[in-house]
Specification:
Blueprint (H helix, E strand, L loop, with lengths): L52 H4 L1 E6 L5 E4 L4 E5 L6 E5 L8 E6 L10 E7 L6 E8 L9 E6 L1
Antiparallel strand pairs: 1-2, 1-8, 3-4, 4-7, 5-8, 6-7
């Protein structure tokens, strides 16, 4: 058999006019990213909060003073590194973040007040998925503490 086989009841792009298919007629995950042209969808076509942080390139981690993860945007791991009171932490976002902007602030995972201090961030040169966070207390002495870390890509 030569040529294109056409299956009965299956529409092709040539059969469809503009706006002829409504969202209720498309199954969940029925359209893949490779099937959508660049710039074909704008903000007016996305339900409020219908995208995840990863969809829009915003990742976050809230880390407890012992290095455990309080909450995150998903796929994130964290750990205290170095000496017991070094104030050094590693946060692994599970994807390359070296081309992203990084910001961190002291902050408790809950509603408790926090003390003053300094905080610094840097990319981990040995692993492009990691961010190193360094904490100091108000006297600029190494100190453990909880913090909020945001990565925007």
């Amino acid at each position: 058999m030569c040529g294109t086989t056409r299956w009965p009841g299956v529409a092709t792009a040539a059969d469809l006019g503009p706006d002829s298919v409504a969202s209720s007629e498309i199954q969940t995950d029925g359209v893949q990213a490779t099937e959508v042209a660049n710039n074909a969808i704008d903000s007016g076509e996305i339900v409020n909060f219908g995208l995840t942080n990863q969809d829009v390139g915003v990742l976050y981690a809230v880390v407890n003073n012992d290095g455990t993860l309080a909450r995150s945007s998903g796929g994130v791991a964290s750990a205290h590194i170095g000496a017991p009171m070094s104030g050094d932490y590693r946060v692994d976002f599970g994807r390359t973040v070296t081309t992203c902007a990084v910001g961190a602030v002291h902050g408790s995972p809950g509603a408790q007040p926090i003390g003053a201090g300094l905080i610094g961030t840097q990319y981990d040169l040995s692993d492009p998925q990691d961010v190193i966070v360094k904490l100091w207390n108000h006297e600029a002495v190494d100190s453990n503490g909880s913090f909020h870390l945001v990565v925007v890509c």
